[in-house]
Amino acid sequence: TLPAQQNGQSLVVTLTDAAGNVSGPGSLTAPDVTPPAAPTILALNANGTLITGTGEAGAQIVVRNNLNVSVGTGTVSADGTYSVTLSVPQINGEVLSVRQLDAAGNASVAVTVTASDLQAPSALVNLTVSSNGLQLTGSGEALARIVVKNVLGVQIGAATADADGLFTVNLATPQLNGQLLVVTQADVAGNVSVPVNFPAPDVTAPLALTLAAVSADGRIVTGRGEAGATVSVTGPLNASLGTAVVAADGTFSVILSAPQTNFEALLLVQRDAAGNVSPGVTVTAPDLTPPALLIA
Prior knowledge:
Elements: E1 10-13, E2 26-29, E3 40-44, E4 50-54, E5 60-64, E6 70-75, E7 81-85, E8 95-101, E9 111-114, E10 125-129, E11 135-139, E12 145-149, E13 155-160, E14 166-170, E15 180-186, E16 196-199, E17 210-214, E18 220-224, E19 230-234, E20 240-245, E21 251-255, E22 265-271, E23 281-284
Antiparallel strand pairs: 1-2, 3-4, 4-7, 5-6, 5-8, 8-9, 10-11, 11-14, 12-13, 12-15, 15-16, 17-18, 18-21, 19-20, 19-22, 22-23
């Protein structure tokens, strides 16, 4: 009785009769149903395009990604080494499986290798600031570190995304006045995404105007306010007398549609770009109008 021959062995067969006469030899090849040993992986190069190792001479090497999609094949050379060029660079921490198939199609057990993570994550999406301005939520890469900075580069919050990439960052101060938030994520390998410049909602009314005054001739109102805000001047009977935009240096000058020269009380407010309105400020026009002459 022979041991099982299941690896494509070549067998020589003879027959011997009862008298001891031996026939001529015949040849037979055993079936090959034995998978080869797993290949070894020597290296995946730094730019993720070439995987090398050793295996069974003549076997086919198949490399698959974590979606079980083939990303490269090759043949083990006579000296037992192989080199497989990958169809797509593997540089984002992908787990690759490598197995070899012998000439009979038997597949070995797979061995795995993890690619280097050299690829920055995508920019964050679905950013939202809470109604109280103290939390920023959004979506990113699983387990990434989320950092929020203000426009001066000062960090005002950080958090780690969960396994689904969702995150909530607690902010150091309320962000409710249109502040620009600079938000990035760093993956577990330390690669940092492109920053997202995200404007916080502006639901904060501007402060009241300051240094408001009416010119000596009653034609112009000047003062200081929030850059970019629109200043409105209202006179007696709620009549609109003029508007102007606060300059970048915070000053404004409103030319009135009619001179105010009879000690009128003028109401000034400023409205920011988001439509928030400041408290009103009242200024008094000069009194340049002589009293009416009453004749009894």
